Amino acid sequence: MTAAAPPGRAYLVAHWHVGDSDPIPVQYNPTELVLEKRVQFAEIAIPGLTAPLQQFVRGQAEVLTVELFFDTADKGMGAQATSVTTETDKIYSLARIEPSGHAPPPVTFHWGAGFPGENLADQLEGQLRESFTGVIASIRQTFTLFSAGGVPLRAKLALTINEYKTLGNQLDELNLSSPDRTHSHVLSSSDQLWSVAQRYYSRPAEWRRIAEANGLADPRRLEAGLRLAVPAIDGGRRSR
């Protein structure tokens, strides 16, 4: 049985080449989530004008930065102290290369139901999401407390995740692919249900909706060439 994250707790899921990991909950919800999106413009100088024209070149990856706090001091600070790395390694290891995929895995950081600010989507239509999928661009681990024997007991993880979208995801977005219309998708050899959900819904956690619609008993056993029905989400908004 797949483990579940504690209610109201933010968590990460790694999308390994062989399948998704169990949720990796943070020990404490972060106090800040920082999202940054940049675009690149070229300046076109026209003689006689007071300012150059701005010509769009390309968008840059959106970036999520978050700092996470971990503490095992409550388990004791003496000879039997528990290293905080027993918690931080679960996330720190996600920046390492996966042998079967030849790259670190994409990850999704979830701040779903119960997380502070969960109603953001109801306030700002352009922020209709409760997770962020990307690749870990950097991770910095800072130890702030040690036991008398030198065991690290507290740590901060500064995590930077760069937006991850396949070419198919981006082409569909340019074609105004909408989650409130039913779609058909032919699986490629690299597809997984989470990536199909990310492509059509911008929410990888919706993979179960696709699995149920297609009667997939084992979502990890997918055959290239299989045509999937991608059901609509009423009004483009997932029901709560």
Q: Output the structural class.
A: alpha+beta
Q: What is the count of β-strands?
A: 12
- CATH class category name of the largest domain: Mainly Beta
Distance between the termini: 24 Å
- What series of H and E elements makes up the topology? EEEEEEEHEHEEHEHHE
- CATH fold name of the largest domain: Elongation Factor Tu (Ef-tu), domain 3
Poorly predicted runs of 5 or more residues: 120-125, 235-240
**Helicity range of the residues?**
10-25%
Number of domains: 2
Tell the overall outline. flat
Helices and strands in order, then pairings?
Elements: E1 11-16, E2 19-20, E3 24-25, E4 34-36, E5 39-44, E6 53-59, E7 63-71, H1 85-92, E8 107-110, H2 120-123, E9 131-146, E10 152-163, H3 167-174, E11 183-186, H4 193-201, H5 207-213, E12 227-230
Antiparallel strand pairs: 1-2, 1-3, 1-8, 4-7, 5-6, 7-10, 8-9, 9-10, 11-12
Helix pairs in contact: 4-5
Domain LysM: 183-230
InterPro entries: CIS_tube_prot_N, LysM, LysM_dom_sf
Organism: Tistlia consotensis USBA 355
In short:
This protein has about 240 residues and is an alpha+beta fold. It is about 15% helix and about 30% strand. The protein folds into 2 domains: about 1-165, Elongation Factor Tu (Ef-tu), domain 3, CATH 2.40.30; about 165-240, LysM domain (Membrane-bound Lytic Murein Transglycosylase D, Chain A), CATH 3.10.350.10.
Question: Could you please describe the fold and organization of this structure?
Answer:
Pfam families: CIS_tube (PF19266), LysM (PF01476). By secondary structure, the chain is of the alpha+beta class. The protein has two domains: 1-164, Elongation Factor Tu (Ef-tu), domain 3 (Beta Barrel), CATH 2.40.30.200; 166-240, LysM domain (Membrane-bound Lytic Murein Transglycosylase D, Chain A, Roll). The protein is 15% helix and 31% strand. It contains five helices and twelve strands. Strands 1, 2, 3, 4, 7, 8, 9 and 10 form an eight-stranded antiparallel β-sheet that branches. Strands 5-6 form a two-stranded antiparallel ribbon. A hairpin with a 2-residue loop joins strand 1 (11-16) and strand 2 (19-20).
